[in-house]
Amino acid sequence: MAEVALSASDIPYTQLPDMFPGLDRRIVTIDGLDLFMRTGGEGPPLLLLHGYPQNHVCWHRIAPELARHFSLIIPDLPGYGYSAMPPESRDHEGYSKREMAALFVKLMAAFGHQRFNVVGHDRGGACRLSHGTRSSRLRRTAFLP
After folding, report:
1. Which of these, 34, 71, 122, 140, is most buried using a 10 Å CB contact count?
2. 35-49, 70-84, 116-130: which has the minimum mean pLDDT?
C-alpha cells in the first residue's frame, strides 16, 4: 500500500482547530487569485506576512494582543496554506516579491485601506521591502528575519 502525504489544502480549513479566537476566516479573490486569511481587531490596519515554509498560523501567538491595537489582515501568501497558487508562467512571475507586494496593496485597498502598516517575516519581509521601496501607502514597516 502506498502512503499519500496530505497537505494543508487537503483538509477543509473549517475542520482545523481555531488558533485565532475572535478573528474571522475569509477567502478574498484579488486578480482572480483566492487568498485565505484571518481578519479582525480594531485600530489602524496591519498586514502580517509570513515567511517560508510557513503560513498565516505563524502569527497565532501574537495576533490576540495585536488585535487589541490594530485591524489585522493575516493572509497566506499565494501558493502557501489555503491560498491558491498563482498562474503558471515560464518566469514564475506570480511568485516574485514585486508581484506579491502589488497583490497585497490591492488586497488592502479591497478592505478600504489606502495606507497601512506591514510586518513581514522572511519571504513576507521581502514582499514588504519590494512594496516599501516604491510606495507611499505604508505607514510603518518591520522586517523579522
Report:
1. 71
2. 116-130
